[in-house]
Design goal:
52% helix, 2 strands, alpha+beta, two-stranded antiparallel ribbon
Length: 98
């Protein structure tokens, strides 16, 4: 990212992190991957209590995500994720630029 992009992007990440805290997400793993000069991915993976069974290190994230995909994908769990995403979207829309 160039300097202007950093100045625009970092405040968005900070706003999203504050919104996550407002709905009870206390801890988050951050991942940044830049595949090319013009493309990157940024992930914010919430750390939930159920993930403790896999450890706290970065190596624990993949097994936790696989567990969620394979064992925590009921309709109710998908609805819960959808509701959480909607809350985050609403918070980000309600407070643009803050």
């Amino acid at each position: 990212m160039n300097e202007a992009e950093v100045l625009e992007f970092v405040p968005v990440v900070q706003r999203l992190r504050r919104a996550q805290e407002q709905i009870g997400i206390q801890f988050v793993y951050y991942f940044y991957n830049e595949d090319t000069k013009h493309h990157f991915n940024f992930w914010m993976v919430p750390r939930y209590q159920w993930m403790a069974q896999f450890g706290k290190s970065i190596e624990a994230v993949r097994p936790a995500l696989l567990h969620a995909r394979n064992h925590m994908n009921s309709e109710e769990e998908v609805r819960a994720v959808t509701r959480t995403a909607a809350k985050l979207r609403a918070d980000m829309s309600a407070r643009p630029g803050r």
